[in-house]
Design a protein that fits this description.
Layout (H helix, E strand, L loop, with lengths): L1 H9 L37 H22 L5 E8 L4 E7 L2 H5 L4 H13 L7 E7 L7 H13 L4 H14 L4 E8 L7 E8 L7 H5 E9 L4 E9 L37 H4 L1
Parallel strand pairs: 2-3
Antiparallel strand pairs: 1-2, 4-5, 4-7, 6-7
């Protein structure tokens, strides 16, 4: 009941043309290719534009629900995989046991809510919980951690430096934490904490940076938290991007020159 009421609290409504469960237009597009199209009978004719809008709205609404519902469990993002048989929703979190609940009760509740909200047919949507490999390199997890530290009454400076140190010890190349709002006095101000190396422009910002924004509702007002983590280059792709930074130049060691012995003089002296 509490979960079903969550949608009313969020204030989401099906707008015409944005309802993921009932999009239909001209150009043919396979129904199973759409994130939100769980039903095969739905729409064989969905225009590409409407399909992408519907998928974006579906993802945004799902992410918003899971962010609010699983904030205390270290929610770090969601991934939607669509197969011909079913739609798989993978929830990334730091505490997967809390997401699953006692004997899997909580994950079944969430599955039921998602199925009813988006009108998936029975047994066509599955929710899974996946543990975050390195929570020190996840900006969402660190922003939530900082949020709960501030709600617990820890000093802003101490909380931010704690997060900064933990991120850098986890193998990040750089980290930046910005907290803005009424920190001590009535006058609002912004505090910025930085460590390591951080790129701010160009294509590497999309590949190397992980960013998260959260709001803390304190008694004196709302504080804004922004966490930016720059991952290090990892050829294996586990801890960071495989693609190296474009401005990194690797100088190869010169090859050792092979010394050839002098060729014998072939001429009249050799004939003698």
């Amino acid at each position: 009941g509490a979960l079903n009421g969550q949608w009313r609290v969020l204030g989401f409504q099906d707008r015409q043309g944005f309802k993921p469960s009932a999009v239909a237009c001209s150009t043919s597009f396979p129904a199973e290719a759409s994130l939100s199209c769980g039903c095969a009978k739905m729409a064989t004719n969905v225009s590409k534009k409407r399909k992408f809008i519907a998928d974006g709205v579906f993802y945004a609404e799902l992410n918003e629900l899971l962010t609010r519902e699983l904030a205390e469990d270290g929610y770090s993002g969601v991934e939607v995989r669509v197969t011909p048989m079913r739609t798989e929703i993978i929830i990334r979190a730091t505490r997967t046991q809390s997401v699953l609940g006692e004997k899997g009760r909580r994950i079944r509740e969430l599955t039921s809510v998602v199925q009813k909200r988006f009108k998936f047919p029975p047994e066509t949507v599955e929710l899974y919980a996946e543990k975050v490999a390195n929570r020190g390199l996840c900006a969402v997890a660190q922003a939530e951690s900082l949020r709960y530290k501030l709600l617990g009454g820890l000093a802003v400076r101490r909380a931010c430096y704690g997060v900064l140190r933990f991120v850098m010890e986890s193998g990040a190349k750089g980290c930046e934490v910005i907290v803005s709002g009424k920190l001590r006095a009535q006058r609002a101000k912004s505090m910025k904490f930085k460590d390591g190396y951080m790129v701010s422009s160009g294509d590497p910002t999309r590949v190397y940076l992980d960013t998260a924004v959260r709001h803390v509702l304190l008694r004196q007002g709302v504080l804004g938290i922004k966490v930016r983590i720059m991952k290090d280059w990892d050829p294996s792709g586990r801890q960071g991007p495989r693609m190296p930074l474009p401005d990194v130049v690797k100088v190869q060691e010169p090859k050792e020159e092979e010394l050839y012995s002098d060729k014998p003089y072939v001429g009249k002296e050799a004939e003698l």
